[in-house]
TrEMBL record, chain B:
The Rieske domain, residue ranges: 48-133
Name of the featured protein: Rieske 2Fe-2S domain-containing protein
Keywords from the UniProt entry: 2Fe-2S, Dioxygenase, Iron, Iron-sulfur, Metal-binding, NAD, Oxidoreductase
An example molecular function term from Gene Ontology annotations: iron ion binding
Keyword S-adenosyl-L-methionine: no
Family listed: Belongs to the bacterial ring-hydroxylating dioxygenase alpha subunit family.
Segments for region (Disordered): 396-415
């Protein structure tokens, strides 16, 4: 349930500012700065086949801890990741932002996304819903978990090696 | 059967035998529509084709949509517990009768006119039946059964060829390796309960057929993955073994099957044993130290024409068109293993082999590049002669090569050529 604006730890405006900043870092390939948005115990998750599953028992498109996120960034920046030569260009829209307080003191932000991706003269569109679990750190807001639920996560996919 | 084949079209005018030589493949093999049509009839309609795993249909009424080549089929478990493979095509006016990827149902109802079939294939309901003649016999219009279905240790294969030899015989020299792959489970049973990572790529299905037993490409194409392995050796990574040319071997078996294998290093074995001591102690006790070492090896096993048992996964190749292929990669869960080990295997698998993985997408990029390159009509042949000069023929008839040799691919194309140039019914 969405709490009233007066008691909310995070306003929709603040949540949007945060998501827009993350989107810009991804689309501009400032991936080291993007990593800094996450807590040390963060999870970055894209389920496969459905929006929710048990990642201990079922496969995902990715279920990264902080170390694997760093490997992922390294591969895109240094690699070479042949699936990203030449690299994808992306630009993403974030909308329908909703803020919820969660029981464990974290703030959960839901949003819709549409990513336009172009590589080797072909433009593709990926859409879905983000769930960001945010923690208010001493200095700044950090992502403790980012989950991306693609509308086509139950379909065969080709080359999702750019950042979703 | 006369000159019209099962698809009702005249045989293609291409002589497939001209397209494959011992050390060369013609570009037309990967793009010609007539070659593709002929492959569906002369290969996929004749061989055993992997359609699913027992663990995907554990309960009565469970079903899973699958394919034999481009033909839609349904894997079902009927009320008697029998696993059947039904052609997913209404006998009336041709619609598929099952639109879900998987589920549980005792009946399939055609969406068009509502004809209803039991999961045994029997036609049990025709709406407003009285406008059909009185002597209209329902039993003549059941869903077609794929005539041969066999299950080897949970792996379910089907064949449209009623004359084909038994599955165990078909597996030939690959069978001991299939056993080794499954025996990594202390119960000797695997499960595909973790679902699949689904891929498609803009290229011919045989690129994937060749690639899983290609020990030559990884050191170059997957260089970034090996660097990631090396960067953080203390952490879980897809268990793709050493790039060392001297370790392991390739083998081409009968019937187009093949393997690329690398012995497990001491480091790999020690890591797994120390992370999951109880499980691997049980496994070693069950099989003895020598066999245990074999089970821990990296095995990329190809069962012609559409199945790989490879690393932590069951990989299934589905041709869609000459230049489009779907591949499902199922991480293998080991029955009897602790949850933490299966969870670790999931993370290893995803790292390499999801659409966002560090290995598979680079293969698909290469396949797309080959498909594009083959548009160059002026260069007709691809070269498959690596290691051909000292390939050994073993006593059991299989051919043996170094790990980066093209021995497996030559074997695959010997079988391809044999089937593609054989008229009539294959044995």
């Amino acid at each position: 349930m969405t709490s009233s604006p007066q008691t909310q730890k995070l306003s929709r405006q603040e949540a949007e500012d945060f998501l827009f900043r993350e989107a810009a870092l991804l689309d501009d390939m400032r991936l080291d700065e993007w990593l800094e948005l996450f807590t040390d115990d963060a999870t970055y998750w894209i389920p496969e086949g459905k929006d929710d599953l048990d990642p201990k028992r079922e496969t995902s498109i990715l279920y990264d801890d902080r170390f694997r996120m760093e490997d992922r960034v390294w591969r895109l920046v240094r690699g070479p990741a042949h699936a990203q030569i030449p690299p994808s260009r992306t630009r993403r829209m974030i909308s329908n932002v909703e803020v919820e307080e969660s029981e464990d003191g974290e703030v959960v932000v839901y949003s819709n996304f549409a990513i336009f991706e172009v590589r080797r003269n072909e433009q593709r569109i990926f859409a879905g819903r983000y769930e960001h679990r945010l923690r208010l750190g001493e200095d700044a807001l950090r992502i403790r978990r980012k989950k991306a639920m693609l509308v086509n996560n139950a379909s065969p996919l080709y080359n999702l090696t750019f950042m979703v | 059967m006369d000159t019209l084949d099962r698809t009702g079209r005249p045989e293609a005018g291409i002589d497939a035998g001209d397209l494959v030589r011992e050390d060369r493949i013609h570009r037309g093999v990967y793009s010609h529509p007539e070659v593709f049509d002929l492959e569906m009839r002369r290969i996929f309609n004749r061989t055993w084709v992997f359609v699913g795993h027992e663990s995907e249909v554990t309960n009565t009424g469970d079903f899973k949509a699958s394919y034999i080549g481009t033909q839609p089929v349904i894997l079902t478990k009927d009320e008697n517990g029998e696993i059947r493979v039904l052609v997913n095509r209404c006998p009336h006016r041709g619609s598929i009768v099952c639109r879900e990827a998987k589920g549980n149902s005792n009946f399939f109802r055609c969406p068009y006119h509502g004809w209803t079939f039991k999961n045994t294939g029997d036609l049990v309901g025709v709406p407003r039946r009285k406008r059909y003649p009185e002597d209209f016999d329902l039993s003549e219009l059941n869903l077609q059964q794929v005539p041969r279905v066999e299950n080897y240790r949970g792996l379910v294969f089907a064949s449209f060829n009623p004359e084909i030899e038994g599955l165990v015989g078909y597996l030939a020299q690959a069978k001991p390796y299939v056993d080794a792959f499954l025996d990594l489970s202390v119960e000797g049973e695997i499960s595909l309960s973790a679902g699949a990572n689904q891929h498609e790529y803009p290229g011919n299905w045989k690129f994937q057929m060749e690639n899983g037993v290609d020990g030559y490409h990884a050191m170059f194409l997957h260089d970034s993955f090996f660097k990631i392995q090396a960067r953080s050796q203390d952490r879980v990574h897809a268990r793709i073994a050493s790039r060392d040319e001297g370790k392991g071997w390739t083998e081409a078996f009968s019937n187009g099957h093949a393997i690329l294998a690398r012995e497990a290093g001491d480091k790999t074995i020690d890591e797994l044993k120390s992370a999951h001591p109880e499980y691997f102690a049980r496994l070693e006790e069950k099989h003895g130290p020598e066999r245990f070492r074999e089970l821990m090896a990296q095995m990329n096993i190809f069962i012609f024409p559409n199945l790989y048992l490879i690393l932590n996964q069951v990989r299934v190749i589905r041709p869609v068109s000459p230049t489009k292929t779907v591949v499902n990669m199922y991480p293998v869960m080991l029955n009897g293993a602790p949850e933490e080990l299966n969870e670790q295997r999931l993370r290893e698998h995803e790292e390499g082999f999801s659409a966002a993985g560090f290995v598979g997408p680079d293969d698909y990029e290469a396949f797309a590049c080959v498909q594009e390159g083959l548009k160059a009509e002026s260069v007709e042949w691809l070269v498959l002669l690596r290691g051909i000069h000292d390939e050994k023929v073993l006593e059991n008839g299989s051919r043996w090569g170094q790990p980066s040799d093209e021995t497996p691919q030559r074997g695959q194309y010997r079988e391809w050529r044999r089937l593609m140039t054989m008229d009539g019914e294959a044995k």
